[in-house]
From TrEMBL:
The chain crosses the membrane at residues 490-510. CDD domains: PKD (cd00146). The gene is GPNMB. Belongs to the PMEL/NMB family. This is Glycoprotein nmb. Residues 336-353 have a biased composition (Low complexity).
Amino acid sequence: MSGVRHHLGLLLLAQAVLGAAATRFQDVLSHGSTSPVTSYKKLQGWSSDQNKWNEKLYPFWEEGDPRWKDCWKGGRVTANLDSDSPALVGSNVTFVVTLQFPKCQTEDNDGNIVYRRNCTRDPPASMDQQVYVYNWTEWTDNCGWENCTSNHSHNVFPDGRPFPHHPGWRRRNFVYVFHTSGQYYQTTGRSSTKFSVNTANITLGKHGMAVSIYRRGHSGFVPIARAKAIYSVTDKIPVFVSMFQKHDRNISDSIFIKDSPITFDVKIHDPSYYLNNSAISYKWNFGDGSGLFVASGSSTSHTYTLQGNFTMNLTVQAIIPVPCKPVTPTAPPPTSAVMTEPSSDSDSSPTVESVEDNPDGGCHIYRNGYYGSSIAVVEGILEVNIIQMTSIQMTESQAENSLVDFVVTCQGSLPTDVCTVVSDPTCQVSKSMVCDPIVVTDECLLTIRRAFEEPGTYCINITLGDDTSQALASALISVNGGASSGTTEGVFIFLGLLAVFATIGAFVLYKRYKQYKPIERSAEQTEKQEGFTAYFSTFKAIFFPKSTERNPLLKTKPGIV
């Protein structure tokens, strides 16, 4: 009999232990995981997940439990948990939880969930939509914070601690319980809540943050959603560098142009402004043998004078002021380590700073961040110039549009396409755009012919481009229509400066001397011209519906785009 009683006592003891274990925060918030707790440092404002969980007031449901289907009218509520990590150790990492309600449900200003039944995205004005409001807190309407004796349990968290009392407590119908690093944090809120935690006592690396959300009920709280997120803590300053170049066609391909400055802009990820009072320096090595550059500003520029592949490296160093530690009577040996962050228990700090990193013995620590990128440098198109404009004289039977030839040169690599944008005189409102592929095999010299339907002043932007670069030239041109006079006055802008290249009288004199002639060349240039080809692409009807070249004279002029 004594043996039976002994076994029965062990069984009851085991059941008691299992029952007690099932009510711990660790098991509830870890979804049933019973892995042993690893050592961790105390987070300010957080509690150990070995505390007991009031499962009667806050029931725990496994995933797949049929009660999830009935915990919310109209569908299932989901939760999105986001963070602004990675976080530099010692800074704050912020988490934001947002509840997503089923269709047609929103939270009003009083914290009620308004449910419009049979709603549509754009309901007719005559349609009367029935509105339902969740009446979870009806019991609070007739009582205050202190005298709700029959429902006093509604004002406590799962560990029995009372809710914080503030003027808006009636609108906070949700309870959020967060769990990480063997600890939990609990708060009340509305359909969205945000909180921050300091990372000084969080070990380096990736961690999981879990949250369980409950809503108020008449006799307790009802679970409605769970969410998880991964965040990381690092002792390296999170750094990103954006690169920009004036003539670069694609800023994301890391291909840049020789002999043109590249702007490097450093972005430090520090959403909690932990480094605001720090002294930050930037050490650049552009990988082209130009040496090491140290700057105090986050932006710099560099010009590569050679083609090839290079590796750019950046080191960001921050000197962070921290509370001074008491001076010990014995001096540490030269190779000893000095702890740089205070610890609330016996665990060693995850980061140390050597004596050599603190030469002046000041009350600060050093943090470094690193960034590297491969850069390809190519020839590219560096500059475009409009060197001549010629108005094409036509007979009355041929004249429907005013035609103008623009002679364009460029420096650098040979272009593969040309685009012309015609705008108003302010260069702000675009009227038409034409882009043509071209083939240039010798030198960058080509003639671009464009039509103007009406007289007036126009802003012309001519862009030459290849696979990696593009450059632009602009001009203001005044077009005077009429086939009999054939006069066109051009006023050009080169590099932002206005210059008058021809007057109406000069054009008339020029046309009396010869009707049309390409740019004068030397004998050697004339021989090279045979190797120069440029293909004409027909204007699209959408831009120039009347711009059809029917003049047989124009068809005999090769090399015109």
